[in-house]
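From the pipeline queue, job 12 of 40. The input is one protein chain; the requested action is below.

Action: predict structure.
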Amino acid sequence: MELPIELREKIDENIASIDIKSMKKSAQNISRRYRDKTQKKTNNQLITNKTEAIAYAASRMPATYGAIYSALEHTMNIIDFNTNEKALQIKSLLDIGAGTGAAGWASTSILNIEKITCIENEKYMMEIGKDFMQAGYECLKNANWINKNIIKDKIEEKADLVIAAYVINEIAVNERQQVLEKLWQSTNKVLLIVEPGTPEGYEEIIKIREYFIEKGENIVAPCQHNKRCKIEEKDWCSFSCRVARSKVHKILKDGDSPYEDEKFFYIAISKFKTRKASNIILRHPKIESGKITLKLCNSSGNIEEKIITKKEKEIFKKVKKLNCGDILNI
């Protein structure tokens, strides 16, 4: 997966005037601050200048875009388009904790979005995000960027689709629930939350899932049930997307590979009911000679292993094209 060409060109244009050593140092400083848990408690600014914002975009935007795109694509595939036709007329996006705007680019690559609102606390990220979006579709060019602290400030803006990517895990634990409530109050139709593919990220998604189930809300994806998760302790369902690396990206990340695999977890909740798919694939299918082994989570909340053999021609052919997170209606 690659960033849209217009966005890639805009990033290249911005990094051309910056010394690569300075940018690498900036990327390392940002990474260190994001790992520093005391920063989450104090809610300090994490991006201190324009160079850092550009370094962040160059090093993290491809993976963030890929994770949001993958999670949103899975979500829209899982929603039953015949359940409520009006519910799927998603025309507006509210990106909370927008960073440099990856969710806006990902959403407009999948949906017919007409209005975008981005809320971001870091002013340098906002400036870069605004600039990048001038290279995109009309709705990206006209995106409304608002400088707000999602913990301290009221969020009065609303949209059909609300996305919070790599946000909740950066907030102090005792403030997360109030932020979740703000997100939900801003949601007209679908709320999508994406978190890092780490044990902490998975635990946070499980807590978010439990929070919305207790409220009686409808979990759209990836789970096809509102029951207790039966994944065993020390295990988890995981998702990943493969994103292309540019020359600069390789330097900033100290990597030689032409791609990187971004692991992430996500959850989507809707304000409307959806019919459930029979199964969701929890792990990358194990393809062997004459058979494919799948780990599935079904709509009854059970987890099972299923083997599809080559004798089952049509199903075997279909399953061979599927991946982790995909629907399997059999």
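Job complete. The chain has a mean pLDDT of 86.
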